[in-house]
Amino acid sequence: xxxxxxxxxxxxxxAVRGWVGFYTLGLxxxxxxxxxAEVAGDLADETLDAIRHGDRSxxxxxxxxxxxxxxxxxxxxxxxxxxAAARLYGPAPWxxxxxxxxxxxxxxxxxxxxxxxxxxxxxxxxxVRPDLWPGWGPVGFAIGSAxxxxxxxxxxxxxxxxxxVIVPGAIIGLFAAxxxxxxxxxxxxxxxxxxxxADETVR
Length: 203
Fold this sequence. Notes:
By secondary structure, the chain is mostly helical. The N terminus is likely disordered.
C-alpha cells in the first residue's frame, strides 16, 4: 500500500526523494538509508492524510513548497551535522566541503558559469560582435569557462579529479582572456584547496 502511494505520479514525491538522494551522496550507506526512510515515512503520512481529507490535488504544491523552503536546512545538516555523525561509521567515502572550500567553490562556479553564459548566449542568438573580441578569444574563453565549471562542480564529489580538470581549463582561459588572470588563478586555488582538504581529512 505504502509503496503504491509513494510511487504515485504527479504528487511531488519523486522530486522529494530525488533531492534527498542527491544531498546524501557520499554519506555512509546506513546514514543515507535512514534519512531516506525518514522522508519516505513523512511522504506516506502526508499521502494518507490527503486521502482521508479527500484532497490529493494539493500534494504536489505542498511538497514542492516544503522542498524549496527546506533546502537551506537540508544543506546545513549535510555539510555541518552529517559529517560529524558519519565518523561513527568509519572512514568516510566522501570528504564534505568546509565553509572555506564551499565559499571558494561557489564563487568560482558562479564566475565560470556567468562567463560561459555571457559569451555563449549572444552566440546562440546570432549577436556575435567580432569587432569587440576578434580571433579565437571568445571560443577559448567559453571552453576554458566550461572546463573550469565542470572541474569545480566535479571537485565536490571527486576532489583530486576535479582539481586536475580545473588546471587545463584555467590555462585555456588564461590564453584566451589573459586580463582575467585573477579569476583563472582563483579557480586553480579553489581546486587545490579542495584537493588538499580531502587529503588532510583522509590522513
